[in-house]
């Protein structure tokens, strides 16, 4: 019996000694966690800031790419709309000659005749070009506008209401899909 008591005494003495040790380790572990949390807090903040910067860069890059796509589509549409500009500009002197010939043939004292076949070709050419977006400008009698007209000369106006207006059109102006490809050359009353 004596032995058992001694063993339990030793065990009892050993247990209280172990408890403070485990408490000390627990407090040490808590201190390490708070210390490591304090050191990781700045790291977390910097990582969060870096993530925000990368998100901002990504959003800006996507916006720039979207703008690039829209601009490219717009430029292609403009290119397709004005692709025929050079061809139309080259045909304009032919149209001017056609107009002069028709005007000369329509005069009462003229001996030239604008045959029915030539008249058909004239009308067909104009209709095809109008379908492609070519429109002649109406200038005579309109108020002079330097954005549409090129004044070749000024003459005294025959009436007071013709001052500042186009008296005569020397060369017709043309629009191709609402863009000017040739300005009208006009005579303005002053």
And the CATH topology of the largest domain?
A: Nucleotide Exchange Factor Grpe, Chain A, domain 2
* Total number of domains: 2
Terminal residue distance: 141 Å
Q: What is the number of beta strands?
A: 6
In percent terms, what proportion of residues is strand? 15-25%
* Main sheet makeup: 3 strands, antiparallel
Number of discrete helical segments:
3
Q: If you compute it from the alpha carbons, what radius of gyration comes out, rounded to the nearest whole angstrom?
A: 46 Å
Give the class from helix and strand content and strand pairing: alpha+beta
Low-pLDDT windows of residues:
none
Look at the structure and give the CATH class of the largest domain: Mainly Beta
- Biggest sheet: strand arrangement: 1-4-5
Q: Quaternary arrangement of the chains shown? A: single chain
SSE pattern, N- to C-terminal? HHHEEEEEE
Could you please describe the fold and organization of this structure?
With 190 residues, the chain is α+β, with helices and mostly antiparallel strands. It folds into two domains: 81 residues; 108 residues, Head domain of nucleotide exchange factor GrpE (Nucleotide Exchange Factor Grpe, Chain A, domain 2, Roll). Helix content is 62%, strand content 15%. It has three helices and six strands; from the N terminus they run αααββββββ. The strands form two sheets. The protein has a three-stranded antiparallel beta sheet. It has a three-stranded mixed beta sheet with strand order 2-6-3, with no helix packed on it. Helix 2 runs antiparallel to helix 3. The radius of gyration is 46 Å and the shape is elongated.
